[in-house]
Amino acid sequence: MKASHTLVSLLGIGFVLMSGSAFAAVHVDRSAFGVLPDGRPVEKYTLHNSNGMRVGIITYGGIVQSIEVPDARGVVDDVVLGFDDIQEYLDNGNVYFGAIIGRFGNRIKQGRFELEGKAYQVPVNNGPNSLHGGPEGFNTKLWQAKPIEGKDWKGVSLNYVSVDGEMGFPGTLTTTVRYTLNEQNELQIEYTAHTDKPTVVNLTNHSYFNLAGAGNGTIKDQKITIHASHVTPVDAELIPTGTLAPVADTPMDFLHPTAIGKYLGSKSEQLMFAEPKAGGFDFNWVFDRSGQLDAVAVTAFDPASGRRLEMYTTEPGVQFYTGNFLDGSIKGKQGKVYPHWGAFTLEAQHFPDAPNQPSFPSTRLNPGETYKQTTIYKFSTLKG
Ligand code: GLA
């Protein structure tokens, strides 16, 4: 009698402990992910939760190497483009699969800007312009990693110190990027940075999503909703003109769920600038509400698998890019071919070329200030 009473109490305590500690269900494993040419080892951190979601992060480039999530029938597939081998990341750096982008996401016109009356020239690597922090941006750096955990999440914290003048940018910039996963299938990315001189910063992540699974065809039938009534229109070199243009009555109107393929391939001037000949998306949408993590900013949905992705962000804009430069020549994980329009990116960001556009939200960071951006990619399923 006494014994069974004790057992019941223990079960009771066990139940309380388990229900009060959902965090225990998220695990982080560490494994080797090859070696850089200079001998430095690259590690992979895998975050798993009890819903069958697994996220792989490698310390080279802070790259999101995999996101495995169940579909509406429980079938798990990997929904981001990437490689199995570190050498393939080194050989294909210009696609930025899954990488942390810094110090400055997207383009800076002719790599030039001024701060406090001083002119800076950063290296150009995209025609006449600088793209994604230059040829040796944060996507090419080995980050210092350590596991982290909180009340209902676990993850990995990555740190990188970019010295004064690296890739032409002023100030030593100390950056931390925290990737965490919880039981709500939310991959949260939190970026912080500090500088010792006035500088410009615009950090993002360059994951390429295909909700049907990476390498399983194109994203044309997947639907997207972007809560943005305006974009920043661009010139032929994808530099913003400085104005905001309404999306109404253009192929950029994604205010309601719309198949990405509906206007992909349309010969509008903007789409032809983004992808000469074919006509693709590669623009910055300006959110109607910005800086709010509690309001969904973008929703993507794949009717065939039922997988849904929601993005929440503190950033004022997002670069929605449709893999226009993929041409079927890249073989990714498990030898799968990544076709043209085989994925889309949702790069939460401040607007391209902001250092040269006084009317855009400022990307300037001063000593004593903290740069902070948080973006959540939340996965769920719905019936088609
Ligand atoms: C961003 C740019 C694109 C392209 C991709 C990577 O989305 O805006 O033009 O460079 O990155 O290929």
TrEMBL record:
Main location class: cytoplasm
Q: In which pathway does it act?
A: Carbohydrate metabolism; hexose metabolism
This protein's source sits in the domain of life called Bacteria
Q: Which reaction does it catalyse?
A: alpha-D-glucose = beta-D-glucose
- One Gene Ontology term of the molecular function aspect: aldose 1-epimerase activity
Q: What is its EC number?
A: 5.1.3.3
Q: Where is the active site?
A: H206, E347
**Gene Ontology biological process:** galactose catabolic process via UDP-galactose, Leloir pathway; glucose metabolic process
Task: List the CDD domains hit by this protein, alphabetically.
Answer: galactose_mutarotase_like
Tell me which UniProt keywords the record has, alphabetically: Carbohydrate metabolism, Cytoplasm, Isomerase, Phosphoprotein, Signal
Which PROSITE patterns does the protein's record reference? ALDOSE_1_EPIMERASE
The question of whether Cytoplasm is a record keyword is answered with yes
Describe the family membership recorded for this protein in Swiss-Prot or TrEMBL: Belongs to the aldose epimerase family.
| Subunit annotation | Monomer.
- The protein's name is Aldose 1-epimerase
Q: Which species?
A: Pseudomonas duriflava
